[in-house]
Amino acid sequence: MEISVVLADGTERKVPSGCTVSQLAGMIGSKLAKDAIAAKVNGDQVDLRTELHQGDKVEIITPASEEGREILRHSTAHVLAQAVLDLWPGAHFAIGPAIADGFYYDFELPNSSHFTDEDLVKIEARMREIVSEGQSFTRAEYSIQEGLELFSEQPFKQEIIKKVADGEVQDESLDADESDQGVQGSSVSVYRNSSGFTDLCRGPHVPSTDKLGSFKLMRVAGAYWRGNEKGPQLQRIYGTAWESDKALREHLIRLEEAEKRDHRKIGLELDLFHFPPEIGGGLPVFHPKGALIRQIMEDYSKKEHRRADYQAVWTPHIAKSTLFETSGHLGWYKAGMYPPMEMEGATYYPKPMNCPMHILIYKSRGRSYKELPLRLFELGTVYRFERSGVLHGLARVRGLTQDDSHIFCAPNQLSAELARLLKFVISILRAFGLSDFEAELATRPEKAVGSEEEWNQATLALEQALITSGISYTIAEGEGAFYAPKIDVHLKDAIGRRWQVSTLQVDLQLPQLFDLEFVDSDNTRKRPWMVHRALFGSVERFFAILLEHYAGALPVWLSPIQVSILPVRDDHSQYAESVASELKKLDARVEVIPADEPLGGRIRRAKMDKVPYVIVVGDSDVANRTVGINARGSNAPERDVALGDFVLRLAPELEGTPIGELND
User: Fold this and answer.
1) Which of 248, 297, 351, 604 could disulfide-link 242, Cβ–Cβ 3.0 to 4.6 Å?
2) Does residue 532 have an active-site annotation?
């Protein structure tokens, strides 16, 4: 008997009844059969041993795809746990998910011992033995009670089984990575290697360990169980895994380059910012040069928003709890908000979002359709209590300044406004020298407020804006905020890393919660749509992205010092000052470094400070009104360049990239 299945390209294929995914791959081609590690059947990831049924839609997963890499990494994490339990009998293992570019696993060793660097070498060697043995991964299902008995000596696995079985998957205390632990309602799924090692897991996994091998263990870190500082402290081993040794080598090279570009390191070297322990984690202070870069970024943003018909507003940093109760932030985000303050019989919170206060500005008086779209803009600082374990320099802070906009528009204006807005977003990002973009359209999650009809209307408008913009995009099913679908704009930096920056959200819920209205042309009262939009994401995080993208060598228009002028001797200082005066007429940021130490040392220091132009003036320059130019990134200095020629060359660079093209 035969059945029909549908392949990824939409074609139908006849296969024998009882055919597995692995057998189907072999029928399609020998190379695919060799490369296949798992599949998607009707949208769900499954093992190659899965039996197919009539009408199934089948997509074979190979290692070089994103889904394939995730499965490789998850499978390698299981091999890591197996190796640790082989080497440390009595160890407890917790969770081991795939993460971006790698995987980790959390352990509690007997007698409170700790992993060392030498242990990583030993663990990796044991993992390679397991890989070479070609141990098969086999899935099995058990009842909850059987699962508890199977993991009777593993307290973390038992806790996961009990919590998920009790319906606490969505509890805030449950680590998000535990959602992949194979507990669903009344059953437990596990994967067992042919050696007997068993782990709690939903899967899928590669068919056998010999499909693995291109991996490396990276480091050990501390990790609290479920991120709770009062819970057990575990040891987390991080690793990376790829589809080939070549891909692994390329990743390790990228990591080396990323380490050189680490914005925290660059920030200290260039004297831009630091995080004083007296203030607390995640709250930076910006030094004069860093604050100047921020000011330039913010001034540019303000100017472009004015040109695009946004109206600047300003709102306070704290508000009464009742505001955040109405907006829903206390109900949804309280765990991530700073603790309240009690004053004069009222409870106040530092604001986690700017939107409730922008809504109050809209609502401060009656609004007419003639005022819409109303585009409010603020560089507003908000406060979110991130756990110390996730703080990461400027990229993840507790106090962040958003270039935040909220647009109120009539329903019939939504599509055009979103298309205009997306074009504006891309124009601003391009002005900072960024050009490689892609987007995700995040749709309705399981827990959401609002009708399905409203969500569909908002999602359709967002997708139409993406189509109009020409930006490539993917659908992130169920990844929207609880109140709105959204577009997340991602960019790739100079070394190929992906960063999420701008976000656009369409919201009908807050206008309803705050009872917002406008009077339409027919004199009836109607509800406006509201669009949330942060363009940089946050100034701090965008600052970090720029530092790493440019490795600290910011474009001339963004550099705190654009030209350093070095007189060879003291008697050249007067001419150096006259050169500085000429450049300052262009509003260039110039410094003269006095001849109080050898010239070579001064040149080296200016280059280490990433100054775009290091100008040296000596006898012939004084006599001929010329300069010697050491341009950043140039292989050799230029001699005897007429000062006027340098001025003409510098002027357009001070203006930065061309102003972004806007929709009218």
Assistant:
1) 248
2) yes
Percentages helix, strand, coil for the chain (3-state, rounded to 5) are 40, 25, 35
CATH of 2-61, one of 3.30.200.20, 2.170.130.30, 1.10.3720.10, 3.10.20.30: 3.10.20.30
- Annotated active-site residue 402? The verdict is yes
Which CATH number does 66-252 carry?
A: 3.30.980.10
Residue of 351, 532, 533, 602 with catalytic role: 532
Look up residue 135 and give its DSSP letter: P
Residue 544, phi then psi, degrees to nearest 5: -60, -45
Map out the domains of the chain as residue ranges.
2-61, 66-252, 306-315+354-546, 556-655
Catalytic entry in 402, 505, 509, 562: 402
Beta bridge partners of 129: none
Neighbours of 16 (CB within 10 A): 12
Q: Which of 482, 498, 407, 495 is nearest to 449 (CA)?
A: 482
Residue 179 predicted with pLDDT over 70: no
Task: Give the single-character DSSP code of 136.
Answer: B
**Distance between CA atoms of 570 and 577, rounded to whole angstroms?**
11
Q: Does 362 score more than 80 pLDDT?
A: yes
Q: Which CATH architecture has domain 306-315+354-546?
A: 2-Layer Sandwich (3.30)
The model's confidence at residue 183, banded by pLDDT at 50, 70 and 90, is low
- Establish whether 404 is a catalytic residue: yes
Catalytic residue among 82, 119, 139, 355, which? 355
| pLDDT value for 177 | 46
486 is catalytic: yes
Catalytic residue among 261, 420, 486, 549: 486
**Predicted confidence (pLDDT) per residue in 116-129, tens digit:** 989 999 999 999 99
Write out pLDDT tens, residues 186-234: 788 999 998 889 999 988 999 999 999 999 999 999 888 887 778 889 9
End-to-end alpha-carbon separation of the chain, Å? 63
Q: So what CATH class is 556-655?
A: alpha beta
Catalytic residue among 56, 404, 488, 609: 404
Strand partners, 629: 615, 638
